[in-house]
Amino acid sequence: MDALVNNAGIEPAHSLEGMELGTWQATLDVNLTGPALMIKHCVPMWRRQGGGRVVSIGSRVWLGGGWTPAYSASKAGLVGLTRTACRELGPLGVTVNVVAPSFLHTAFNAQKAEAAFLDSYVGRFAEASPLGRLVEPVDVANAVAFLVSDRARNITGEVLHVAAGTQLAPAVQ
């Protein structure tokens, strides 16, 4: 196992007041507990082979975002897990990082935003970007490819924002 990419996630939209406990737990189970268990079960292999790479897909929303309290908390927890794991696994030669994209330019996300409640959501993300554009899936893939490569051998415990600069703007609501 040279590299583990934790890329499963769910993002239920709801207010904090309207959130149900089951939604909270399911989101934490998929977005935080799953990556923790994947890392845990790869450690024996990395110990035997003398190293490896972990990249978890986080989100710009770990900085806080509207209508996604469970998702935001789970992605913030993923950053904490990553920083703890990098200290514990570094002596084994394992690097552990997070790629934190913003809203991705996909047909699925555009439909989800329009169906939920924000017909201009996509446009507001592009406007919030200093680059004036949305993040494409290939941008995230390129960041992951870099972090699992030998070129990133001394990068660990980091959050790489692939967000077209939107992490610098207030949360898009």
UniProtKB/TrEMBL annotation:
Its family? Belongs to the short-chain dehydrogenases/reductases (SDR) family.
Organism's domain of life? Answer: Bacteria
MF terms per GO, please? oxidoreductase activity
Q: Which UniProt keywords apply?
A: Oxidoreductase
The protein here is known as 3-oxoacyl-ACP reductase
